[in-house]
Amino acid sequence: MTDHAPAIPPYWTRLGSFFLYPLSLEPLLACCGFGVLAGLASMFFVPANLVLWAVLLVATLRYGYKVLERTALGHLDDSQTLFDSAHGGKYLPYKQFVVIAVGLTICAYVASVAGPHAALVLLALFGLLLPANTMLLALTNELGESMSPPRLWALIRGIGMPYLGLCACLLLLSSGHGALFGLLASVVPAGLLGVLFGFLGGYFTIVMFRLMGYALYQYHGELGLAVDVGFERQATAIAPPDPVRQRAAQSAELLKEGRYDEAIAVARGDVVERPGDLSANLRLHRLLLAVPGQTQAMLAHARDWLPALTRVGQESYAIEVLEAIWQHQPDYQPAQAGAILPLATALLAARRGDGAARLIREFDRRFPGHADTPAIYLLGARLLIEHKRDEAQARRVLAALRQRYPESPAAAEAARLDELLDRLAAAAGGNPA
């Protein structure tokens, strides 16, 4: 993976997908096959039923190992698990039995020498190592290597603390089969209990092995595991193509080729399709601004789009659009009175006092009786103080505001601003005007 490769989502954020995976076509058919085999085993007597149960166990584990292996290699949308494997995995279930037998034998020996408590501690440690052993078996198909303490420790250290969470999830899943079977046994006909047992066993086995495979894929960089499908390709394969990005890329390519009219047509079509979308309108605005001969088209689009920007709180982009209009039409004023105050406030905050002053000039004459007039007066006083350093004129504006609109919130703010000017004048040793 490159430095800019997207991060693989952690396994704990994908638990739902692991439960859904066995319900896709091929795993579901496999689970149904396990159910049928278990149903047949429940119908026969010893020793035929024992043979069928053994075949079922081997078949379930063998399929689980193939799911684990191919998931670890990045085949998250795999549809060929049953017939495709890097090393076949034919004997992996038997090697798993050997590992379990060796572990239980060691625990029994420790129990005879050091007592049951030491054996229980060793058994718990064996349980913690079993997932790592299973993952190594799936990757290497080597019994000795999967039991090697250095290899086991390297895998656990590569995953880190999330390995303990993985073990906890696997422990819960291993008990889920029996718990769910117990819940459903009372409502399922007795003749189908064997089928249900086999189906649920296959289902939970596939979920567990899918989880282990995904954990290996998540940490394949730390583990030095070469994967077939990197997450860059994975994200591309999983996510549907984004038509918005496709059109943006198409427009950019047309610009590079000098096909300006076609690029503008693509951008304009995007705006027609998504008239309220910020990125589409911004792309069209900047394109019209950059292409020679498109001034009138830019002005027409900008004048229509500007009020919408102020309504959705995008004043920073509104300033960009407004200043682009002023470059070609210096006397332009928005026709909507409600757009003036937020735009002027944003211009003042951006330290563009001249633009704010131009915007609010003669607001009360252009929009007589408008509800924003007191706030515009207050903004004008702030402009006089902060940008013109004309406190005397600012006081006159504040006095007019308090006299004409005494009940407005702006009048109360004007009184506080007046008091602040008085304190500043007193501190400077002057007299209030």
From TrEMBL:
Gene3D superfamilies hit by this protein: Tetratricopeptide repeat domain (1.25.40.10)
InterPro entries in alphabetical order: TPR-like_helical_dom_sf
Annotated transmembrane regions: 27-60, 97-114, 120-140, 152-173, 179-204
Keywords: Membrane, Transmembrane, Transmembrane helix
Protein's name according to its UniProt entry: Tetratricopeptide repeat-containing protein
Domain of life from the UniProt record: Bacteria
